[in-house]
C-alpha cells in the first residue's frame, strides 16, 4: 500500500509556498514584525523561507530521506519562530498560507508544524534514496498520534495558555 504522507506533506508545503509568493509583500511584513526590521533583509528572509519550502517539498518526493531531513529542519524552524513569538507576546498574522488562513502565529502553529514534521518520519525510517517509499497507513497514523503527544510534551506552550505557563514558572515547575 502506498503511503500518502509524503504527498500530503509536499502538497501542504507547496501550497504554503505558493500562497506566500502570491502575497509576498504581506509575508515580508510578517517577517518584519517578527524582528527583521529592514525591508531588504526581511525580503531576503521571506524569499529564503519560500525557496526552502520549495526545495524541501521537492526533496520529499524525489529523495525521501533527504526531503524528510529538510522538512523536519524547516518545520522545526517554523515551530521555533512560532514559539518565540508566543513567548515574546508578538501578535501577528501567521502568513503560513496567505489569505487562505488568517490565524495568528501562536501555539496552534507550533503544534501544527510538529504534526506536519511527524509526516516526514516514515521517510526517515524506510525511505530509500531516489525511490518513493511504502509504509502501511496504520503505521503512519500511529506516528502522527505519537508526534502529537511528543509535541505536547516537548512544546508545553502548544497546549497551555500564557497564564498557565506563567503560573508554572512562578511555581518552579516549568
Task: Present the secondary structure layout.
Elements: H1 5-22, H2 24-33, H3 39-62, H4 64-88, H5 107-118, H6 121-126, H7 137-154, H8 162-171
How many helices? 8
Largest sheet: none
Class computed from helices, strands and strand pairing? mainly alpha
Query: Unreliable runs, pLDDT <50, ≥5 residues?
Result: 129-137
- How much is the average pLDDT? 77
Radius of gyration over all CA atoms, rounded: 17 Å
User: Oligomeric status of the shown chains?
Assistant: single chain
Order of helices and strands: HHHHHHHH
- Indicate how many domains the architecture comprises: 1
Distance between the termini: 43 Å
**What is the tally of beta strands?**
0
Shape designation: globular
Helix content: over 70%
**Into which percentage range does the β-strand content fall?**
under 5%
Describe the protein:
The protein is mainly α and 174 residues long. The protein has one domain (5-171). The protein has helices at residues 5-22, 24-33, 39-62, 64-88, 107-118, 121-126, 137-154, 162-171. The longest helix has 25 residues, at 64-88. It is globular and about 45 Å long. 37% of the residues are buried.
Question: What features would you highlight for this structure?
Answer:
single chain; 174 residues; mainly alpha; 8 helices; globular
Amino acid at each position: 500500500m502506498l503511503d500518502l504522507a509524503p504527498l500530503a506533506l509536499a502538497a501542504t508545503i507547496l501550497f504554503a509556498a505558493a500562497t506566500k509568493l502570491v502575497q509576498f509583500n504581506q509575508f515580508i511584513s510578517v517577517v518584519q514584525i517578527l524582528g527583521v526590521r529592514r525591508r531588504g533583509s526581511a525580503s531576503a528572509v521571506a524569499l529564503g523561507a519560500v525557496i526552502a519550502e520549495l526545495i524541501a517539498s521537492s526533496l520529499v518526493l524525489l529523495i525521501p530521506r533527504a526531503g524528510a531531513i529538510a522538512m523536519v529542519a524547516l518545520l522545526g524552524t517554523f515551530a521555533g519562530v512560532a514559539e518565540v513569538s508566543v513567548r515574546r507576546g508578538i501578535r501577528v498574522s501567521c502568513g503560513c498560507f496567505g489569505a487562505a488562513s488568517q490565524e495568528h502565529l501562536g501555539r496552534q502553529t507550533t503544534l501544527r508544524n510538529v504534526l506536519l514534521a511527524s509526516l516526514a518520519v516514515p521517510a526517515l525510517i524506510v525511505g530509500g534514496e531516489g525511490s518513493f517509499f511504502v509504509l502501511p497507513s496504520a503505521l503512519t497514523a500511529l506516528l502522527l498520534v505519537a508526534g502529537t503527544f511528543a509535541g505536547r510534551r516537548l512544546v508545553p506552550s502548544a497546549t497551555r495558555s500564557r497564564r498557565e505557563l506563567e503560573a508554572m514558572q512562578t511555581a518552579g515547575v516549568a
